[in-house]
Amino acid sequence: MDTLTKEHYPLGLKRPDLLQSFTGKAYEELTLQAALEGKITSADLRIHPQTLLMHADICDSLGRQQLARNFRRAAELIGIPDARILEIYNALRPNRSTKEELLAIATELEQQYGAVENAALVREAAEVYERRGKVKKLEV
Question: Is the pTM of this model over 0.90?
C-alpha cells in the first residue's frame, strides 16, 4: 500500500477498500441493515489499529505531526484492555504515582503490549512531573 495523503481523506469515501473493522469485516459490510439483521456486533464496530495508522499517514502529509503521533499512540492502545487503560490514566494524574511507578508502567507498555510511543509519553510525563513536583511523595 502506498503512503496515504490528504487526497485519500476521508478514507470511508475515497478508500473504503482499505478499511476493515477490528474483527476483520469490510467497511462496506458495516451497514444499518446488517446491524438490524444481527450480522454485526459491537465488536465489529471497534476501529482497527491499521485505520488509525492510515490517518496518521494522512496527518503527516499535511504537516500535522502531533496529530499523527496521537493517532499512532491510539493505534497502540487498541491491544490494551480497557480496564488497564483506565488504571494507567488514573496513575498519570498529578500526585497519584511515584516516578518509579510511572517508569514501571512505561516498561509494561513497551514490553507487554509493544506500545513504544505510549511508553515514551509516560516516561516523559514521569520526568516532567518530577521537575514540577507532581509525583506522589512516599510516606516516611
Answer: no
Q: Are residues 71 and 86 in the same domain?
A: no
The full length of the chain comes to 140
**Which of 78, 95, 120 is the last residue in one of the domains?**
78
Residues near 115 by Cβ (< 8 Å), separated by ≥ 6? 73, 76, 77, 79, 80, 109
Q: Which of 78, 106, 129 is the last residue of a domain?
A: 78
The number of distinct structural domains making up the chain is 2
pLDDT in tens, the chain (140 residues): 578 999 999 999 999 999 999 999 999 999 999 999 999 999 999 999 999 999 999 999 999 999 999 999 999 999 999 999 999 999 999 999 999 999 999 999 999 999 999 999 999 999 999 999 999 988 76
Identify the sign of the CA torsion 16, 47, 50, 6.
positive
Same domain, 56 and 92: no
> Using the 8-state DSSP alphabet, how is residue 81 labeled?
-
Domain that holds residue 110: 80-140
